[in-house]
Amino acid sequence: MPSDAHIRRLVRELVLPEDADLVIQKPKYWIPEFCRLYFRRCDELISEIPADGLAAAEVCPELVYLTETVTRQPQHRLRLRALAVLGSAHRATDDLDRADGVYKAAFALLEKSSSISQTDVANLLFRVAVLRSCQDQYQEAVHLASRSVDIYRRALDHVRRRHLGETLTVRGYIHHMNGRLELAMKDWGEAVACTDVKLTPRIFYAVAHNIALGMMQSVVPPRDLSVIEKHVTQASRYFSGKPLSVPKLKILWLRAMIMMRFGSTRRGEATYRKVMSGFLRLGNVVDMALVGVALGRHFYRERRFEELKSLAIEIDDACDLECKNSAIRNAVSIWKEAVIAETVSAEAFSATWNVLERDSFARAARLNADGLALKVTSTQEARS
What we know:
Elements: H1 4-13, H2 32-48, H3 50-57, H4 60-71, H5 76-92, H6 96-112, H7 118-134, H8 138-154, H9 158-177, H10 181-193, H11 201-217, H12 225-237, H13 246-261, H14 265-281, H15 285-301, H16 305-322, H17 326-340, H18 346-363, H19 379-383
Helix pairs in contact: 1-2, 2-3, 2-4, 2-5, 3-5, 4-5, 5-6, 5-7, 6-7, 7-8, 7-9, 8-9, 9-10, 9-11, 10-11, 11-12, 11-13, 12-13, 13-14, 14-15, 15-16, 15-18, 16-17, 17-18
């Protein structure tokens, strides 16, 4: 049996998603411990680049089947985890119906097997909770997340507490997406307290990001700026040195929001521009337009109409080239024409923002691809 260090090295050496097919072609990967670590790697990829995470996760069920041919015994816990990860990948790429189908298969497996632990059930429940939130089933989402929290609270070891932190982060996310900011902040505060930054940096920095954004969305006096910046800095460290990604840009956007709110407007404007450029490089024109409309509102308030006109043309051109959604193209075009004619109003900004944000939410795979960290398209931006 290979050592744990050897198995960890096998997982680290994979270039995903390109090497996903290798794990079902080479028997050296058909080991239960490799499966567990591979699933964790898929979760991380889903949270950063959902499409790549899906490509990596699609082999998970077959990997478990092949592992069973080697161990010559059923691996029900691995089967359940494979389905849980695959369902998350489909949800993160906005294939909600397929995610639902995968989770139904997972619940069917639960009914057949007596060897699956309660913590495995809790892991599945919080993933389905995120899906129900994406389907606007708030009560069911909270119910499932709360069941998961209760299971993890009954477990006392540090591994289970790590999962409790993750599940509380998810429940806080669900509360936040449904306007229950006070409940969200309560869950995130507990999540930070039981999450180890060294063991699970992805979870710790996600909840730190959420707390910072939640504070920005509340009526926070300027004296709390240092607290907000502390959480944003913690969230930023997770992405330091990593390639450009949507989560990395969302945290940069949050930093720009803080700059604009607390007086560093020129630096904030430059940061908004940097975020816009980054989203375009990733082919994410909807979020590029969201950032641009937020920056445009700032120009409008300061009556910097020439800069606003140039920005509106830039956003409209990008949407014409890159956006397949005709409703977005039309909304941005109407807004641009009003800007050019100098007849644009605050209501026009809000209307355009709402069209863009609905699409960004519908695709359900921005920073909240794993149901942990919030989108930065916030109440604070919409009202500012």
